[in-house]
Design a protein that fits this description.
The protein is mainly α and about 180 residues long. It has two domains: about 5-45, no CATH class; about 75-180. It has eight helices and no strands. Helix 5 runs parallel beside helix 7 and helix 6 (about 125-140) packs parallel to helix 8 (about 170-180). The chain is rod-shaped, with a radius of gyration of 33 Å. The mean pLDDT is about 85.
């Protein structure tokens, strides 16, 4: 126990009515108790603040991982009009880099998004940008050796539905995308 603390405790014990011989013994016990509370299992003496500093980076890292995972999961179902769309595109590109067959899922998701944007009467720029992203994904997927043509049929039905509901310029772009990928 540090000297200032020890002196303060001595004065408090004397004021409480302890005899000088008792104060000496109580100070010895208090010093041993402080050592017990500050020792870790490794036997290294630490203060409570030191223990907190050790766990702070782990806590921040775990919290960041949890929040990041939550954002990626939530972003998977958003339309391109959402602020989470950039998170979705980033996670999709990482997933494709790790597992190239995932491109089929991304391609189908983009076709659904084009359909959803047309149904929601979104801006022409959003519809055309998402359609361009679909076309890029579909072109890359088409060159893969084990391309799943059922995925293309799913995309085709979504895009045909979007084309039937889309205004003129979007309808033409969707029809062009469909015909370019069928050849």
């Amino acid at each position: 126990m540090r000297e200032p603390k020890q002196n303060q405790l001595r004065q408090e014990l004397l004021q409480a009515g302890a005899k000088a011989s008792e104060v000496k013994e109580l100070l010895s016990i208090a010093s041993r108790l402080e050592l017990l509370t500050n020792k870790r299992l490794t036997g290294v003496e630490t203060t409570p603040r030191t223990r907190l500093r050790i766990f702070r980076p782990l806590t921040v890292g775990a919290l960041g991982l949890i929040i990041g995972t939550f954002l990626v999961i939530v972003s998977q179902s958003v339309l391109p009009t959402s602020w989470l769309y950039s998170v979705q595109k980033l996670s999709d590109s990482v997933a494709i880099d790790v597992h190239p067959q995932y491109r089929a899922n991304v391609m189908m998701k983009r076709a659904q998004q084009v359909n959803g944007l047309v149904a929601a009467h979104s801006s022409r720029q959003k519809v055309l940008a998402t359609l361009a992203d679909y076309t890029n994904q579909a072109s890359a997927y088409k060159t893969m050796p084990h391309a799943n043509y059922a995925a293309f049929e799913f995309c085709k039905s979504n895009l045909e539905q979007a084309a039937s509901a889309a205004p003129g310029p979007e309808r033409a772009a969707i029809s062009d995308a469909l015909s370019s990928l069928q050849t």
